[in-house]
Structures are given as C-alpha cells and as structure tokens.
Design a protein that fits this description.
Helices cover about 50% and strands about 10% of the residues. With about 475 residues, it is mainly alpha-helical. The longest helix has about 35 residues.
Length: about 475
Amino acid sequence: MDFSSMDPAADRSGAAPFLDAAALAVALAEHDDYVASQGGPDEGERLLASGAVHDGAVDAFADALARSRVDVAEQYALAGQIIGDAMACPDPWCGPDPTRDPHWRDPRDRTAAQVRAERVEMAERAAVCDLAVRARMSEWMIRTRANTARNLQASCPKTWAAFRAGLVDERNAETIAGLAVSLPDDEGVRAAFDDAAASAGSRLTPGKFRTYARALRERLHPESVDDRHRRSRADRGAWLAAELDGMATFSVYGPAAELHAVHARVDAGARHLHAQDGEARTLTQLRADVAIGLLHGTDPAHTAPAMAGPSVAITIPALTLLGHGDEPAILDGYGPIPLDDAKHLAGDATSWVRVLTHPVTGTILNLDRSTYRVPKDLRRWLGARDPVCTMPGCGRLARDCQIDHRIEWAEGGATSAGNTGPLCHPHHRMKTETRWRFETDPDTGEVRWLSPTGHSADLDPPPW
C-alpha cells in the first residue's frame, strides 16, 4: 500500500458538531418525520427484510469516522509537538535558566548540566499536566499520545502517514508505536515492520491486529526470545484496580510459563470442586475463590476466604455503625464497601484511629499549627479531607503522598489544614520547580490550580 501521497492536513471543515439537548430533540423529531415519510415502522421492517439500505446514512457514518480519526491523529501530533517544544525550551514552563548567570551557584551543589537536565524533566512534566488538566485526561494518556506521535514519526513514517490520513485506528497506531520501540535500532528491521504494520493496521480490528503485530515483531526481531525473556523478567509486578459494587481486580504480570501453570492449578481446583455434589458455584466463581484461597493460604473448598486487613483504614459513619443511618463505609484506597465487610475488617484490626465527623455536614474541625513539621493528627485529617493527591486527575492515595505547603513555609505559609494538602512526589516537585501554582479565592477560600499557560483548574471532588 502506498502512503506517500497522503495529506495529513486534509480538509476537516465538514466535521459534524456535538449536539446540545435542543439540537438533539430536533434531530429526533426529524428522524420520526423521516420514518413516517417512508411509510412508518411497518415500511421500515419491509425495507429491512428486503435488504434495502439507506446509503446516505451509511456514507455519512463512514465520513464521520474518517474525520474523527484524522482529528484524533491531530491531537496526537499536537501533544507530541507541545511536549517536545517544552523539553527543547523549558523557560516558559520553569522560568529563566539560572545557570546562564555567570555568578550563579547552586545551593544544592548541582552542576549546571544537572540543573538543565532537571529543568527539561520538569518542563515536560508541567506541559503534560497542563494538557491533562485541560482535556480531563490522565497524564498517562497524554504521554501515550505524545510518545506514540514521536515514535511513529521517528520509526514508522508510513504508519504515521496512514494514521494522519485516518486510515489507521488510534489503538492500532499505539500498538505499532509500542512494538516499534521494542525492536533494535536497525533501519531495515524497522522499515520492514512499518511496511507490514501500516498495511495490516488499516484493515484489521484492534484485537486481531494486536495478535498479528506481536507475531510480526517476533518474526522480525533478530534477538532470540530467550535473551529478551531474561531481561523482561525484571519488569514483573502485581497491582490492584478498584471495580464497582465492593469488588476489585488483582493482576499479576510475570513469566508466561509460570502464570500459565498457576492458572492451570487454579482451573484444576475449580473443576474438582465443580464436580462435587451440591456445589452451586459456577466455574468462573470457583476459579476466583480458589485463586484467592491459595493466595490467602486458606481452604477455598466451600466458601470464599475470609478477608483480613491489618493495615487498612476504614471510615464507618457513627450513625451507620449504630444502625441509625445508611451512609456506606469507606475502605481507604477503594471507596464504598458493604457494611458487613467493613465490620469484619474492623473486627480484625489491632488498633483504631478515630475521625469525629459532624453527623449532618461531615465536616471536621480545622486545626492551626505553628511548626513546619506536619503532626500525625493533622496528616490523618488531611487524608480524610483529601483522600488522593490534590493535582487534578491524579489518583495517588494520600497515604503515599507528601504534605505540601500551598504557601511555602519560607514565605510565611502556616502548617495548617487550610494551607496544606497531599501532593505525590512528582507533582510536589512540579509545583516547586515549575510555574504551576495554587491560587485562593479571597471571598470563598476555594483553592484552584493555575498552569504556566494561565489555565485555571478547580480541585477534583473527593473520589469517594
């Protein structure tokens, strides 16, 4: 397939706008009029049965899809450009470079090269955060888009042209970019990968294409899979993701052979239990119970293993605990959980930390401090007020964050609830070393972030 003639700047002036409520009502009414003009629902059923298709709507769908793909590719290109420009010139994001002053001396004994490298890092972080806050996307998504654009531009020009022209879906483009950078820096290998991936990526659905692209990478990679596997083992890990209705997903990334063996053991145990008389659980439920039981070291034969949590934090409203309210219990790091589960966890706890809240407003008495060090009780209160990092879009738990002085201590800021809040280490550094800053409304006391480009963003509401 020849992509050399594609124009990334194709006209998109005919893109369909988003509909507001009034426009949507008009569109629905027009649809009803169209159905009536075609003889009503009965006539529509006849046309459907005869195989007749409203070609105009199908063509409009295809056109809208092509336009949206081109627009998305433009977002990728702009993200890569903005972040690349920030790294090339950090001054708009971090302020003037102090190392240019011939009398400059770093108070932390860093060399000029070290300071300049950190400024590039902070400028990149500030730019990513600015785009993420504006778009209400995660910083990971913004970085993915920027990295996809830069990787395709550098390694897969044919795929990049096809992506910009709307022929390659963004998920396929991300797959190609991620696999391309895992290939050795060999022009011939990457060109062959680009040729085949650009063609297949324009024809296959994302699921099928991922399978195809992984196999293509394996065929073209000049290094043995054994050598690559030995390096990849260093990236193994496990993580927990919150789900709805008091549930969660526990994932493990590790060597395929070992995890297949684990799955086989879990499956065998589940099938053994499933064959027992009186067993009512499905195989899927049994696999979950067996896996959790094995990890807990308990017997999953009849019931799901009991929960235990010596280091978890639970907030149970007093009225709920006394049976006079229906506010849910909150599991720190997850959110609402069933009250019975909370009571069970609380019953296994070796110690308690009490947070007294108003039974109507839920507010907690503010505290003022006269020292820089944040006392434990204030830190606990801040964790109740701000369960996660206060940078919009960041979900890092407060217990894993540093406590930031919004007005710096050296500039007269107090160690008080109104002047402190949790910031994860990356965002704390960004606030300190870039032009990102807090501003406080003098009338309402509301706090918001102000980006280096002047964009104002309110704090996110509590996640639970």
